[in-house]
Amino acid sequence: MRGTRLACAADPARSRGRRLPEPAAPTRSVFQRDRDRIIHSTAFRRLVYKTQVFLNHEGDLFRTRLTHSLEVAQLGRSIARSLRLEEDLVEAVALAHDLGHTPFGHAGQDVLDDCMRAHGGFEHNLQSLRVVDRLEQRYPDFDGLNLCFETREGILKHCSRRHAELIEAGEPGGIATRFLHGGQPSLEAQLCNLADEVAYNAHDVDDGVRSGLIALEQLLEVELVREHWRSALDAHPTLTGKRLLFETIRRMLSAQVYDIIDATAVGLAQASPADVDAVRLCEKPLVRFSPAMREASTALKRFLFANLYRHPQVRSTRARAEEVLRDLFNAYTADVTQLPPDFAERPDRERACADYIAGMTDRFAIREHQRLTGKSLF
CB-based contacts of 44: which residues, under 8 Å, 6+ apart? Predict the structure, then answer.
């Protein structure tokens, strides 16, 4: 059962509101309403065909942005319930945090940032905010989804100072203020940041082994994996193969979840924030790993970077993905009539092209590239 919400947790009854005020919904809180709008958005549905590490054509069982977002939401809600935070806000932020991701994972973001270097650059977190603030076109009275301040604050996980200044100019004292003057977002946003990291590490271990690019024996170099592999075998001495891998990952996840709950409880007791605004004034996040778990998680990330993300097969696929998106950007900016009318008619040609490409799924980008160039890279 849910306990009483912490005084310093976000409270839907005290939300800082939407940019365009709306009447309250009769049966849902403002954060539940945000979650529902996100789930029904076009950008959310597209996440099913946007990839993490492995591209969509490489197999049906690898994670996508959609399954990742669902895993982050599950982890976030589970931890939020134990910490007595606002679960619906955690779920809304978790489901929306990757809406601005490009096709082909981080390769797509890097290409678009390079292509847009002379036109303001490209940041996927900022793009997620653009999606919910402007690019979704579902309602008669406003562009975007008109989400609450707290949900938008959580979506904007990272932001360059230059972009923060632009946001602040149009929204003084708003969601970008902390990037200019220090401070933190709500506890719920902090939790989503950490749940994102936990989910990433776990499913990239799973997908990496499933793909054959890394072996479980390699992973045993990492203390966090080795510790829970041993505990799985201690409890189940005959366990092998996939069941051993899954049990190891399950135990890793549980250990990280319990560590976050315990370390955050200590941090909250020490800081004793009176309300959510006091949380925002803190210099460091209050939702955290213990120092030992932070070190263990970082070591696992370093291993995955060196052995999975930089694997020759992944790099080869990435190079082709980069070529697809660079060619698309060049083709659209050279001839905007190749864009749909609502993008072609915009005065900001390069940004319109970046918005259109960022919204693509992997397989649509591949099809468009073949249509425009005649090349088949995948």
Answer: 38, 66, 69, 95, 96, 99
